[in-house]
Amino acid sequence: MTNDQKDIVKATVPILKEHGVLLTTHFYTRMFEHNPELKNVFNMGNQKNHKQQTALAMTILAYAEHIDDPTVLLPVIDNIGHKHTSLDIRPEHYSIVGKHLIASIAEVLGDGATPELLNAWRVAYEELAQLMSGHEQKIYNNHVNKNGGWTGWRPFVVKKKINESTEITSFYLYPSDNGPVADFQPGQYVSLRLFLPELNLLQPRQYSISSCPNGKYYRISVKRETGNIHPDGMISNRLHDYISEGDLVDLSSPSGVFVLKHEDLKPKVFISGGVGQTPLMAMLENLINQSNANDNLKITWVHGCRNEAVHAFKDRLAEITNRYNNVEKHIFYEQLINQETSVHQGWVELSKIKDQVIDQRAEYYICGPAPFISKHYTFLIENNVPKSAIHFEEFGPSNLQVN
Q1: How far apart are CA 327 and CA 106, in angstroms?
Q2: Cα dihedral sign for 328, 284, 286, 310?
Q3: Which of 158, 202, 203, 322 is the most buried (most CB within 10 A)?
Q4: Residue 193 to residues 158, 212, 376: CA-CA distances in angstroms?
C-alpha cells in the first residue's frame, strides 16, 4: 500500500468505531443473499445473536488502526486462523468475502465512498487476505504433518455417549476409517458438522476436547440448551436428542490457541463456570498424567455451576483430588443443598478463597461466559497477578477485550 492509501484507511477509523457493526451486518446480509452456499460454512447462530457481525467489525477496526504495522495483530490473526481452518476456510473464500465487503462499503457509505477510498480498502483487504491465508496454510500444513492428522472434514463414529450431569453429555468420537487421530494441545477444540433440518443447512459448531490426548479418540462434552432454543443451541440439542452410539459426525482437526503451557512447573489455577470447564478438564487430566509432575506441581481447581445435579465430572474431580495431594478443589453452587467443606454457596467469588488462589508464580486459565471471565480477570489483576500469566477463552466469536 502507498502511504496515501494507508492514510485514507486510517481516516475511516472514526466511521468504523461508530458504524462498524452496521457495515458488517449489511455485508453478511449481502454475501448470504448472493452466495447462499456459504450458510453451510458459517455458524448461523452467531449471525442471529450478532456475535459474528461484532467480531468482524472489531477485526476490521483493529486492522485499520494498525495499517502501518499489521504484524502487531499476529496474536489475533493466529486465533482467527485457527477458527478459519477449523471451518475449512480456503483462499477462494477470501475472494468472495472481499468482493462483498468492498461492495458493502460503497453501499453503506454512499457518496462518502469515493473511488480513492474504495481502492484503498480494496488494496488493504487484499494484503490482509494474503496475510491470513498464508498463515492459515501453515496451520493446515501442521495438521497434515501430524500422525493421524488431516484437513477438511473427516467422519467420526460416536462409540460412547455418557451422561456427565443432568445437562451435559460426553460423546466419545473415533475415526470411521479406524486410523489414528492426531494429538492436540489440551485446551483446543474441534469443529463438528451436522445437517440441521430446522435450517435445511449443514452447520458447524466448535466444542472443546474434554479429554487429554490419547491417539484413539476425542471426547467432547456438550450442554443441552433449554427454553426457547436459539439456533446456536440447535446442534448441541440435536447431539443430545438424535445422535446415538454408532452414528457418524464430521470433525475438523483440533484447533485453538487457548492451550496449556508446558514449559515449566509453575502452579496452575483453573477457573471455570458451567460447561466452561471442558477445556480445563483436558488440561487437568494431561497434567496428572505427566510423569514426575504429580508431586511437584500445585494445581487449584475452581468451578461454579447452579447445583450438584448439573455439575459434570464431579465424580472424576473427586477421584483426582482424593488420589493426588497436589490438586485442590473449590466448588461454588448457586443452590447448595448439602454442606461440604470444599463447596461454597453462590457465584464464584475468588475473594472468598483469595489465600488459596493468589500466587505470583502461578499460571491462570479462565473459561466461561464473557462476564465471568471479565470479573475474575479483573480480580486477579487487582491482586497483582501479571497479565502475561492469565489465559482465557470465551466460547464463540471473540468479542471480549480485557488486555
Answers
A1: 57
A2: positive
A3: 203
A4: 13, 22, 33
Q: Is 18 a catalytic residue?
A: no
Alpha carbon distance 104, 330 (integer Å): 50
Query: What pLDDT, on the 0 to 100 scale, is given for residue 167?
Result: 95
Long-range pairs for 174-178 at CB < 8 Å and ≥24 separation? 174/216, 174/217, 175/148, 176/248
Per-residue pLDDT, averaged over 313-325, amounts to 94
The active-site residue out of 136, 164, 285, 393 is 136
Nearest to 222 by CA among 208, 212, 211: 208
- Give Cα 203 distance to the centre of its chain: 16
Interval 59-106: pLDDT, tens: 999 999 999 999 899 999 999 999 999 999 999 999 999 999 999 999
Provide the residue type at 229 as one letter.
I
Residue 403 — pLDDT band, cuts 50, 70, 90? very low
Residue 94 annotated as catalytic: yes
Residue tagged active-site, from 63, 94, 189, 377? 94
Q: Give per-residue burial for 45-58: e unless 16+ CB within 10 Å, then b.
A: bbbebbbbbbbbbb
Phi, psi of 156 (to 5 degrees): -125, 150
Cell of 289: 498424567
